Amino acid sequence: MQTEHVDRPRTAFVSGASRGIGKSCAVFLARAGFDVAITARTVHDGEVREHSPTVHGSDSSPLPGSLEETAASITDLGRTALVLPADLLDHGSLDEAAARTLATFGHIDVVVHNGRYVGPGHMDRFVDTPIELLRHQLEANVLGPLVLNKTFLPAMVAQGSGTIVMITSAVAYADPSSAAGEGGWGMGYGLSKAAVHRIAGFIEVEYAGQGIRTFNVQPGMIDAERTLLESGRFGFGGWGAPPDVVGAVVRWLVTHPDADRYRGANVEAQFLCHELGLLPEWPGPNANRAGLRYDRSAEQLRDFEEQLVATLNDRTVS
Fold first, then answer.
1. Which sign does the torsion angle of CA 123, 124, 126, 130 carry?
2. Of 133, 148, 208, 235, which has the fewest Cβ atoms less than 10 A away?
3. Where is this region: Disordered (predicted)?
4. From CA 162, how far away is CA 150, in angstroms rounded?
């Protein structure tokens, strides 16, 4: 766990915080005593913008959730909420959001990169996806977090501490079991999340010994508000874990001293939440429900290590 600065409140920045995983992370951090800067496109309830995940249709119906709602949840917990409208495709708005966070709070302790591109191309097959939409996903999902890190990392280094959490995805290292529209997802989502998955490790190496910690958090299938509304017609959704699973894991990673063992590693949120009992009301993980060729090598290695230690202990006793 990073060094505490007892003379000032802890602060966090969460992107994509108007609903779902981002909102949950922001609220769980507020519960842990953080003042939280939150960013997304949707500021007020009922805002209308295109969010169809496919080029084969249009959907501009209002989605549940807004930065105003998330801010109210934070302030209800007695913490400060800083509302920062921004668009991951507008890198200038990200620069402004990061600068305003530092100007308002004076420092930043935790950054959670959760926001991602929302729109056509996410659920389209490759030949149906214009290159422009692939570019949008790379610009938003990969370069967006890097733009924010360009401002936040130097501030963290100057203060000698800071934690960066990348909300990644199993699509970064697993192929879909079916094509987009039939239970799978578009190539742009997989490409961009694969790139996002590499960020934490590079930062961990480059800033080793300077008080900077990084984590990749893989949520697994999460039934967020938009997922429940949209994903059924694409062959999945309705059986995932609640967003609070990820919120609880992120809170634990940024506040618990034992979390350092996961630095620079990939944290399977549902497994860790279940293993540590971080969300008692949640019944537990359901791995591979989506038919993914799921990368469980880290979990299997840990099981092997535990079995080896138990065997050695048995031999020592005997």
1. negative
2. 208
3. 45-67
4. 14
Residue 213's nearest CA partner among 106, 102, 99, 111 is 111
Q: 221 near 239, Cβ under 8 Å?
A: yes
Pick the more confident residue, 65 or 89. 89
3-class secondary structure, 35:
strand
Beta strands 110-113; 81-85: pairing state: unpaired
> What is the reported pLDDT for 294?
39
Q: Are strands 34-40 and 81-85 parallel, antiparallel or unpaired?
A: parallel
**Is residue 235 over pLDDT 70?**
no
Cα torsion 66, 68, 70, 74 to 10°: value is 180
Question: What is the rounded distance in angstroms from the CA atom of residue 224 to the CA atom of residue 227?
Answer: 5
CB 50 within 8 A of CB 74: no
Mean pLDDT over all residues of the chain? 86
The CA angle 22-28-32, to the nearest 5 degrees, is 140
Hey, what domains does the chain have and what are their CATH numbers? 10-291 (3.40.50.720)
Q: How many other β-carbons are positioned within 10 Å of the β-carbon of residue 50?
A: 10
At residue 122, the pLDDT reads 85
Q: pLDDT per residue over 2-47, tens digit each?
A: 545 557 899 999 999 999 999 999 999 999 999 999 999 989 887 7
Q: Of 8, 20, 26, 13, whose CA–CA distance to 149 is shortest?
A: 13
Please report where in the chains the tokens 């420092």 appear, as a residue.
107
